[in-house]
Amino acid sequence: MAQGPLNGVKIVEFAGIGPGPFCGMLLSDLGADVIRIDRKGDGRPGRAADVMGRGRRSIGLNLKDPADVETALKLLEKADGLIEGFRPGVMERNGLGPDVVLARNPKLVYGRMTGWGQTGALSHSAGHDLNYIAITGALHAMGDGDGRPRPPLNLVGDYGGGALYLAMGLLAGLMNVKNGGEGQVVDVAMSDGAASLATMFYGMKAMGLWTDDREANLLDGGAHFYDTYECADGKWVSIGSIEPQFYALLVEKAGLTDPEFQAQMDRSKWPS
């Protein structure tokens, strides 16, 4: 079997839910040797169906037990990277904070992920994907034009703004070490990541190219050439004909003979 590009990279992942395991899965899929530290004796429902736990070994430790903490530190001494998604201060209270770990292994890239960040008014507050994308404004853009915002599963905050940004940060840190640098802390907040994902839309709004009204913009179902349509058999089809040549083909194949359809980017002529 072919080895992935991260072959030889060792990652220690402290088990969590959602974005942490997804980040570990991505790195494992790329060939990293990921060891997950589970809570010893964890019998929570659903652990057997841990679909994001593929491709890595695990060990059960009690991080309240000094002997088990020392075991974790010994694993980290030989690791290249770390993944943790606890609330701020948890790793420090367990004797596994960045100062302790980097003193034992100065080349380690210490990846940590929270919802609201390590500091600030909300840093110790509970939250989920829905809350993180709401505070950034991203949630406002999702939903029916005359209805309430609709959460897009937990793709934007947990996975897009969290796991992928942490994976990218860890890889950047690993590259820095490879080029002769030292280890570092990669601090990812899902709310920050979700806001970053919305960069283009905030820029378009500042330029007057985006409105806060849903289903009135190019990419939110406002454009008839970028939307979903129900078919005669009750199933749905997605249409994404933004480029002029694809729009011309859509107009031709759909028999849209009304002259107003020729002005593709004239919003005043878009069907309501």
Automatic annotation (TrEMBL):
Pfam annotation, one family: CoA_transf_3
One MF annotation (Gene Ontology) recorded for this entry: catalytic activity
UniProt superkingdom: Bacteria
InterPro entries membership: CoA-transferase_III, CoA-Trfase_fam_III, CoA-Trfase_III_dom3_sf, CoA-Trfase_III_dom_1_sf
Name assigned to this protein: Carnitine dehydratase
Taxonomic source organism: Hyphomonas atlantica
